[in-house]
Amino acid sequence: MVLFRTVAASLSLVVTVVRLMTQPVQEPSRADSLSFAVIAGAYLLTVVTGLRLRRGTAGRLDATVQVVGDVLIATGLVYLSGGADSPLTFLYSLAVIGAAVVLDWRGALVAAAVSTFAFTALLLVMRLTTPLGSVMVSPSRVLFVLGSNALALVLIAVLSGYLSRQLSAAGGALSQSEADLRRLGRLQQLILSSMPSGLVTCDVHRNVTFLNTAGSGILQEDALACVGQPLEKLLPGVSALAPRSIRGELPVQTPGGKRVLGLSVSPLEGEAGALLIVFQDLTDLRRMEEDLKRTDRLASLGTLSAQLAHELRNPLASMRGSAQLLAQEQSNDAVVQRLTGILTRESDRLARLVEDFLRFARPPQPQRRPVALDTLVSETVDMLRADPLTREVALEVRVPQPLTAPVDPDQLRQVLINLVRNGCQAAGARGTVRVALAHADQEAQIRVWDSAGSITEEMMGHLFEPFFTTRSGGTGLGLSTAHSLIRAHGGTIRVTSHPTEGTEFLVGLPL
């Protein structure tokens, strides 16, 4: 309404100026001066109302003052343009319509009554102040103009009030619908953001259209950056499961490593060819399943191995005892002496192998006590630097902060020796082995990394099994024993390997 009044006042000003410019040059008449005054009043009233609206202080009183001002401005313009014969009497109708907009239908009826009164008073004053001989309009004509104008204003007030009420109701319903839609949109975003499962949608061209927060975290990708990318780039191989798959598994390479996803694919309703994919990260679950299977398998092997080792110890002891008796006899036969030495030496080696086997099968209960892991790791690596196996290997230690955990220091040192020596053998000359200590997820983590990355997928499933080795002369009991000792501590040991990223053994010990 403020904008409308501004435009109307500006058009009135333009019309008045053009009329003066088309007339002969002379001093503006009294009517012209009053016209400029009325237009200036309209501008002033509009500016004041606009400023109060901008400050947020305008209310119903301002609307009432504005409507009264419109009626007065209309009265002034009608007076200046001929009174009863004025072509500007329609301005009263505009005032009534404006009242219906800002003051509802009651305000429109009041504005119609005030306009009728103002027009009647104007005609009455003009008739009383006009000389009798100059009266050109008959009384019947005046009454007709007054009656028709009053009737028109009342009808306009009723109609505009009805339309204003309908517009207000429609506007309220629309505002409520918009508020509900915004509320539903926020609720939808909250639901999608709070879902523990990943969710991704794509269009008919298999381009990603949405990725929720959980999916972004699982795939370690920026959700906004993924929009518009091909679905196969985000989830390679998922197209083979489309257009519908109740349940499937998909290995995916992410910036944080390889993940195993359990996912379901279904068509997206309302858009032909579009897909909805819901997925969960099953990596830890599958890893725990593999650990459990490996533990069960090793437990069975351990039971069998312990029985077998006990059966071997007695005949082995008899063999070694016989060899010692033969060695004590003073025989001059060189062949006998050589064979006796071989028998004794091999019996000792077999005895050590049986002891290692028993240590794997039935590791002793750890004698736990608080141990400074940072000191233990540093001392063990320093001791291994003197090993001929590590002389041509770059051996690094990263212990950023002191860390204490309840462990058996002798058993943990044995685990470290096995892992570091295996890493040095795998890395070879000019290779690198790194031992790092960290505190994460309520556990102490020891990482032993080597630059070789020589463990294949086929080897992963047999890595901790006894007698499994890829080195010539190895017994295959080092990693098996390390696994048993860590499990006895209630910890975990995991391994990852890639030809370009190296191999890492991760030992987790509860704090």
UniProtKB/TrEMBL annotation:
Keyword Chaperone: no
Pfam families, A to Z: 6TM_PilS (PF25323), HATPase_c (PF02518), HisKA (PF00512), PAS_4 (PF08448)
Gene3D superfamilies xrefs: 1.10.287.130, Histidine kinase-like ATPase, C-terminal domain, PAS domain
SMART domains: HATPase_c, HisKA
Residue span, Histidine kinase domain: 307-511
Highest rank taxon of the organism: Bacteria
Keyword Protein biosynthesis annotated: no
Reactions this protein catalyses: ATP + protein L-histidine = ADP + protein N-phospho-L-histidine
Chain ranges passing through the membrane: 32-51, 63-80, 110-130, 142-163
Protein name as annotated: histidine kinase
